[in-house]
């Protein structure tokens, strides 16, 4: 089966390209990025601020079941053209990761399909590679935590 | 004739994967690794031997002790670091697609 979401990350480059084709008309795809209550649903995060305009700001926050903030990110909207593009910065708060620049391009394929291309530019090649490996490292850690749980139960 | 060890076969075994994820956090002696498992020390030694033969683990002599640490270069060859990243986005976008397929515009 062909993978719907594609990642292109060439060696030694400080950018990545994420592409995805959707079985959705262009305006619905764009709406999913523009409406805070919809963003919250698919991103699984709380939208504190989302100003869809030039020089607007945005801020997302994710909390664990105990109400502790586990993730907070913010950025500036540089450009916002409905059904066409969003240009924005993205910065994870309380980390040493430098902000990244994101170009989101929305394209109509047919009346019922559309395509999203996200180009993300990082401060350095190292930072890009680090970000790419984050979910992999988390996976290993999770496996390790599970193992710890099992081991603790045996004690 | 020497049996050629297959790295994919090596990481297909759950105990060996667990050993790798343990050692990924920090270098360990065979004894410390074995303490984390119910299996006998011999069984764990056998797994460590296989992982070492496929160069997924590397030995390091430290005084009288032998420490095993992960060979990141080899792991990189077999495990696709990007796949979990891709999957994270794919899951998000699948969710987006599902939500928008059921989207009803508000008329109030």
Structure description:
The complex is a heterodimer of chains A (155) and B (108). By secondary structure, chain A is of the alpha+beta class. Chain A is built from three helices and eight strands; from the N terminus they run ββααββββββα. Chain A is globular, with a radius of gyration of 18 Å. The termini of chain A are far apart. By secondary structure, chain B is mostly helical. The longest helix of chain B has 20 residues. Chain B is elongated, with a radius of gyration of 21 Å. The N and C termini of chain B lie far apart (78 Å). At the A-B interface, strand 1, strand 2, helix 1, helix 2 and helix 3 of A face helix 2 and helix 6 of B.
Short structural description:
Chain A is an alpha+beta fold. Chain A has helices at 26-34, 36-43, 125-154; strands spanning 5-8, 15-22, 46-50, 56-63, 69-81, 85-92, 100-108, 114-121. Chain A is globular and about 55 Å long.
